[in-house]
Structures are given as structure tokens and as C-alpha cells.
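Repro:
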Amino acid sequence: MQIPSTLGDLTSLINTANDLMFHDVVIYILLATGVLFTVWSGFGQYRALTHGVGVIRGKYDRKNDPGAINHFQALSAALSATVGLGNIGGVALAVALGGPGAVFWMWVIGVLGMALKMTEVTQTMLYRNTDDPDNPHGGPMFVLRDSLKKVGLGPLGWVLGSVFCITLLTSAITGGNMFQAWNVADTTHTYFPTVPKIAVGIVLAVAVGAVIIGGIRRIGSVAGRLVPVMCALYLLAAGYVLALHLGDLPGLLMLIVRHGLGLEPTASASGAFVGGTFGYAVMFGVKRALFSSEAGQGSAPIAHAAAKCDEPVREGVVAGLEPFIDTVVVCTLTALVILASGAWNRGPEAAFAEDVPLVFTPPADADEGDPPAWTIADTPVPERTAEAKRITGTTGWNAGEGVFLLIEADDSVDTGGRLHRLTGVVNVPDEGAPFIAFSPYVGDTKPTLAGRGLYADYAGSTLTAHAFDRVTPGLGKWLVTISIWLFAISTMISWSYYGEQGVYFMLGGVRKQVAEPVIIAYKLIYCLLIIVSTMPFITTDAELDMWTTLGLGVMLVANIPIMWVFGHQAMKAYHAYIGRLKRGEFPTHDAPSIEDVVSGKDVE
């Protein structure tokens, strides 16, 4: 394989890999896996929503069980990695690129994901290492190593487990780190232009570092307090927006279902939305739901392995609650806010006058055989409309702000039409008027303007913030900015721990004196990458999606086969546990106080 020599080559290589990992066949396999374990468990989603609630309430907690944190804290630690910017920025990406139909497929993955989570966590609990009861280790890599060790293939198990760990670290760096830091920096800088993006990265790195140095106990303690507060804050604001659009909700839900089932061939282009085919909606709905819930990814079992528990299935049932909370509840509210506010198909924020030249010219030095790159010369920025000024609370354009024009060019298999976005960046020179530097459009057909409207390019979480601002100016600015800081910090904390467990496994049980410096070095590098992620090498939502898709895809490709090979063990244990539960063989006690559950004092 040729090593990419330029950033463009690297982008092409990653996109090719992503296309393979999310080919239609792969998506069908993912859906089939969720259906398999849903049926095999007898619709275990019901047990998660009933028995699982009782478990996290502390009715089954026992101080003498092996583990470091209680069920609630383990669930919070896992949710702190899932309920995050995937719910704000990821959902925005799905709706902006895939249309309303993407939400329907997020629901499908949310429900099927409950069975996936329950199965993969049960597998891990069956094989977790509790040699140190206060610092247990677990995850798909331990399932591979220890199950193969039983049949005399321990070295092969370590090799395969290490391959999974490499995918785990890839996802920790991209989705668990880069996606979070980039979104926080982009949204914060959009609303507070005087705050440099790299300054945001430095603050995030310090905040995350202060927590992860303390290990899983501190992570569980922080997550147990942070997750409920940040969820409540966000859900209250979303509920307020939807209450104002109560009459629109039935129509929006019908729109989601019709596009999601393909009853309408394409999601028609309107405003900033350039259209989306049925297949495109499915792909983005599945990708974003998997990224948000992490179902089938193999990451959440690492957090649940730290729970105080001597019944493996019990923690698996608790884990089944995660996709429901994350995807069915939180992601749906975000999607409905974006749809109800009209942010997804918003109109332009400015318009070019007829006498402003917007002429496409091909470069004179195009290589023979390459499609031409059609360009527009740097263009003065038109003034924002009065309505845009009211919503954004600004009078002009900020340096580095992303914008786009709509153009007609080659047919798009993704959107089902000929519309494309021609992106650009606002430049504000020390002298002279601000101007837009447009990126070239690469294609065989010479583009034509689809209108002279100029759209602000709200990427990821910034689109969700704009949706709130369209309802109540200033709400998105403060709510989403505060929320993404909390969500991102909690997610990066948990993903740092996931990566740490991967490093621990690959060290292969080396002496503690050797392992500890390596793990500390990993934590420092992880925090440094937070800062690097806020540097300007990602500029659009498509580029952001590319990197997060890479991290998600490699883990799914590694973990789904593990579930198929070893899932029968989890299902056997599950049915045995449910049988004992029905017979009343598990003693319970009065639920401890909420404060004791949140703080973990009920198991101290």
C-alpha cells in the first residue's frame, strides 16, 4: 500500500477505509447482530428498563463484592463517555448531512444497542480480572486473552487482544479526544471570538489531567456527580424549546418516520440542506447513533468492569440502559430541537449583490486526466441580514468563520441531486474590508450558482447552539457552550481511562515499576493531544465526521466478531441469571439514599 505523501492523500485513504467499514453489508451485519441478541435475550431491553433501574438504585449493592465503584457510578462513568458531544455535535452532523430520516435510524440503533451493550458487558464481566479487587480490569481484550488461554492459545489471545487495544486507542484519540476538543474550541470561539481555540485546548487539558491522574475512583466520583447535572441542564432547555413548538412535533415525528422508512425517495433540498437519499440517511443515522451510544464498540465494558458486583449479568443489564438514555432520549431531543427550530434547512444569512462577480474558473495548471478544480476569486463579505444579526447577536463576521454558497454541479449519489456546498472562510485583514476565501470545487461539470445567498457554516455542536438561538437568542450561546464543556470533559475523562486499560493490557503484565511510568506517559500524551486537536487542521463538519468515523469503524470491525464468537457464553449466563431472578433467589435491601448512591458511600 502506498504511503500517503500529502494531506489530500491521507484524507483520501481514510475516506476509502471509512467507506469499506461502513459499506452497506457491514451496516446490515451490525443491524443483524443487534436483532440476534435482542431475540436471543428474549427482548432483554425490558429487563434493562425494569430490573436495571433497581440495580442502579442500590438495592443489590454489597460492600464485600469485588470492584472499585458501585453500579450507579459505573453507569455514570460509561454514560460520561456516551452522553457527550455525540449527543450535541454528532446528532447535528447526522441531521445536517443525512436529513430527518437519519433520526429514525438512530432510534433503531438505540433500541438494538441496548441488547448489544448488555451482551458485551456481560462477556467482559465473565472474564474480568479481579486479582486486585479495588482496581479490576476488563474489556474485550481480556475476553480474547483469557478465553483462548483456556484452550492453550494464550499468546494468540494476547496478540488479538492487542489488536483490539490499538483500535481502542485510535478511537480514544479521534472520537474520545479530538472530536470533543475540536467542538468545544469551535463553538467557544464562535460565540466568544476573543478566546483563542488553543487556549480552550489548554484549559481542557488541565481539567482532564486533574481528574485522570486520580484513577478510576476519582473518575467514578466525578462522573457520578457531573453526568446527572449536565443531563438535567440540557434536557430542561430542550424541553423548553419543544414546548414552544408543541404543535409542530407530530408533523416532525411523521417526517422522521417517512424519510427513515424510505416512503419518500429523498429528503428534498431546502435552504441550507442540500438533500439526502434514503441510503445516506441510514448511513448517517447508524454511524452517529453508534458513535453516540458506543453500542457494539467494546468501550463501555471497560468502565463497567470496575463495578462492585459478583453477578456478571447484573452489570450487563445495567449497561443496557445506556443506549436508551443516550440515544432514545437525549439524541432525540437534540434532533427535534434542530428540526423544530428550522436550523437544518435555514435560509441564508446574507446575500451577494448582482454586481458582485462570482465566476468559476478552472486552474491553468491542472494535470492531464485530473478533474478540474473550479475556483472563485476572493470575494468581499456581504452584510448580515437583520434577522441573522438578531439571532446571532453579532453585527459582522468573525475572522475564521465558516460560510458556504449553494452550487449546482455533478450528480451526487449521496444527496440525490446536483446541489453542493462551496465552503469558504472569512478573512479579516488588518487593513481593508473582510473577504471570503472559497475552497475549490473539484468535478467534471463546471458549477453554476444555485443562488446568491451566503450561509453561515454551523458545524457539529455549533449547529445545535444555533438551533437554540433561533428560538431564544442567547440561549444556545450560553446553554450549549456550558453543556459542551461539561459533556466534553466527562467524555475525555472516560475515554482516557479506556485507553489506559488498553495500554495496561498491551504491557502484558510487566512489573509495576515499568508499567506505571508508561501509563503516566500515556496520560500526558492524551492531554497534549487535546491541545493539538484545537489547532486549525480540521475546518468542516465533513472532515470532523471523517476522523470520528475512522475511530468508530476500527473498533466495531474488531469487536463485533468477538461478540459473535463469544456471545453464546453471555446469553447462557443471562438466561440462567434471569431464571434465578424470577425465582426470587437474589436478596435485596432497602435502597440507600440518593446522596450515598451518587457518592458511592453505600459500598464503602
